[in-house]
Q: What sequence folds into this?
């Protein structure tokens, strides 16, 4: 477990200390509750809340035909067409239940934004794994977070394809994890970190080294699976072993706290720290960098040593 690495700057020390103080207060507050609200899309007030089932998909027109439930005070239950983003279109499946925000598009029609898949099985996973993560947080000494030599945190989140991903799914092969958000305006923070993850992904593939890569969004209310899918495509990231993940805000915040990652919401942005971790196939944290200037080659070298041992 770690408190503050020696190499970080004075400004980052202040940010880290603020994070630790906020984390302590939030963990204590969380421990006083038996349940956290793990409802997907909770807190989003844009447009009207819509819950329904996808009946058909028109890929050419980027339309979903959805049979939706009654929207109190606005519209009775009916089946209608909605325009959606490319990422949401790619993630959609006929027969899938979804939750979304219904708004007007530029042409006056209806569109769906902030689309989340709804599944009883996913809800059970979110609850089970977040309870395990909350226990791990309670067991951490105050002011401490997970570092080299510690067992990694449990989690269950949705990936950029709309599928549930759990920490147990990733056991059995090394994992590199970092933390980003798609609207990050600082080229030397999230964009640079994502580029380095993409480089590591390619280098590991070229060397035939098994590894999974997970980028956790610090902005779950905006970064839905569809948004993350478009983000991955913008960076040319492909493959079944690279995941951008998001989920209910409490679950994401608990994961950030476990690794001591700062995420303080400001107007239209997030003031945050960075962390990149290498976790072995058994869940032990082997490397951690809190700098934006981490080198993919250093992580690649450690991955190679794991494969040869």
A:
């Amino acid at each position: 477990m770690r408190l503050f690495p020696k190499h970080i700057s004075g400004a980052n020390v202040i940010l880290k200390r603020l994070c630790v103080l906020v984390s302590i207060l939030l963990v204590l507050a969380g421990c006083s509750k038996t349940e956290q609200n793990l409802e997907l899309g909770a807190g989003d007030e844009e447009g009207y809340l819509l819950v329904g089932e996808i009946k058909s998909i028109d890929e050419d027109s980027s339309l979903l035909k959805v049979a939706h439930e009654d929207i109190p005070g606005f519209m009775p239950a009916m089946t209608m067409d909605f325009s959606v983003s490319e990422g949401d279109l790619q993630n959609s499946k006929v027969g899938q239940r979804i939750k979304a925000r219904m708004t007007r598009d530029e042409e006056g029609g209806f569109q769906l934004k902030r689309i989340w898949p709804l599944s009883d099985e996913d809800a059970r996973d979110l609850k089970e794994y977040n309870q395990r993560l909350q226990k791990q947080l309670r067991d951490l000494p105050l002011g401490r977070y997970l570092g080299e030599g510690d067992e990694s945190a449990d989690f269950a989140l949705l990936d950029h394809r709309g599928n549930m991903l759990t920490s147990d799914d990733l056991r059995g092969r090394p994992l590199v994890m970092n933390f980003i958000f798609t609207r990050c305006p600082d080229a030397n923070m999230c964009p640079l970190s994502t580029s380095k993850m993409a480089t590591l992904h390619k280098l590991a593939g070229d060397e035939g080294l098994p590894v999974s890569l997970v980028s956790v969004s610090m902005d779950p209310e905006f970064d839905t699976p569809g948004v993350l899918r478009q983000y991955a495509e913008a960076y040319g990231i492909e493959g079944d072993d690279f995941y951008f993940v998001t989920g209910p805000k409490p679950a994401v915040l608990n994961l950030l706290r476990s690794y001591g990652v700062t995420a303080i919401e400001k107007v239209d942005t997030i003031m945050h720290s960075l962390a990149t971790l290498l976790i072995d196939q058994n869940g032990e944290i082997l490397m951690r960098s809190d700098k934006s200037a981490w080198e993919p080659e250093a992580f690649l070298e450690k991955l190679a040593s794991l494969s040869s041992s």
The two ends are 25 Å apart (CA to CA).
